[in-house]
Amino acid sequence: MNLHALKIFHTIAEKGGVTRAAEELRISQPAVTAQVRNLEKELGIQLLAAKGRGILLTDAGRMLASHAKRLFALERELDEAVREYKAGFSGILRIVATYLPANLLLPEWLALYKQEHPSVEVVLTTANSREAVEGLLQYDAEVAVYGGGWEEQPGIEWEELLEDELWFIVPKNHPYAGKEITLAEMMKVPFILREEGSSTRERLFSLCRALNVNPPKVGLQFNGVNEMVRAVMAGYGAIFISSLAVRDHVERGDVDRVMVKGASLLNPIAVCTRKQEMLSPAAAAFLSLVREHSKGRAGN
After folding, report:
1. What is the value of pTM for the model shown?
2. Which parts of the sequence belong to the HTH lysR-type domain (predicted)?
């Protein structure tokens, strides 16, 4: 079916005549009439009948006009949906994030994002560093927000947003609290560690290897950052953790920091995407927002 001719016929039905349709469409009346005649010939039915100096719809014309009205309403709805999607105001945003940004950064960023993009469905998965990379490569997510040391990964683009320090933390009133000691001394304290695959855990063990120090004794193992901090607050062990996760607790005196000689490390926070792939408009809008809002945290 000739959709151009159908749209002209639909306009005639909506406006109530050929003259008004021609004015609406800004084409000549003979052109309007010719298109309708061609459509009648194509369909093998009469759509318009003369009535005095005007026209009216036949039964077949009313039937076709009813379907055409629904069709072009759907076309307008589709056009609007495409505009919304291209502007980043609809669709699904799938994010995988490691525990630190998932707990301490993304709640604020996503709250700001949803205020500007309320119709976008956001799916956030929290994972360790290894799982975050796998989730991105397996297309379970379009964006990964990653905290920790990074090694070049085939097929993944890395963009650093900000960085903070990694701190050694012990319970308040611990013998090492507020002191400067060696890494070997620090490793005598039982540690609370994340599971294997955690970037921070791997960096601690790499630091021990680099300085030829025995790795820490694993006293407890948790899959989350908050659990680790709570255990130290309760009086047990030590943790090696991003300052973002524990700074407030240190300032309040809930826990204490230990200065370790030769162990000054920075913890980057980055967004990762698949190389040479165009982001969806929703994801592109999210990245634009986090770039802007991470500037204020850089260097903290």
Report:
1. 0.66
2. 1-58
Q: How many CA atoms lie within 13 A of 291 on its CB side?
A: 8
pLDDT tens digits, 52-78: 767 889 999 999 999 999 998 898 888
Answer yes or no: are the C-beta atoms of 172 and 253 closer than 8 Å.
yes
* Average pLDDT of every residue of the chain: 90
Q: Could you please report the per-residue DSSP string of 28-40?
A: -HHHHHHHHHHHH
Give the total residue count for the chain.
Answer: 300
DSSP states along 77-138: HHHHHHHHHHTTSSSEEEEEE-HHHHHHTHHHHHHHHHHH-TTSEEEEEE--HHHHHHHHHT
Question: Scanning the structure block, which residue is given the tokens 């039915």?
Answer: 45
- The set of residues, in sequence order, having a beta carbon less than 8 Å from that of 207 and lying 6+ positions away, is 183, 213, 263, 265
Residues whose CB falls within 8 Å of the CB of residue 133, separated by 6 or more in sequence, listed in order: 144, 146, 153, 156, 272
d(CA 151, CA 132): 13
Of 29, 147, 25, the residue nearest 96 (C-alpha): 147
Query: Is the Cβ–Cβ distance between 130 and 83 less than 8 Å?
Result: no
Question: What end-to-end distance do the CA atoms of the chain give, in Å?
Answer: 64
Torsion on CA atoms 78, 84, 87, 93, rounded to nearest 10: -110
Cα 107 versus chain centre, distance: 12
Radius of gyration of the chain (CA): 32
Contact status, residue 125 vs residue 140, Cβ threshold 8 Å: yes
Find where tokens 């309040």 sit: 252
What is the bridge-based pairing of β-strands 54-57 and 48-51?
antiparallel
104 pLDDT higher than 90: no
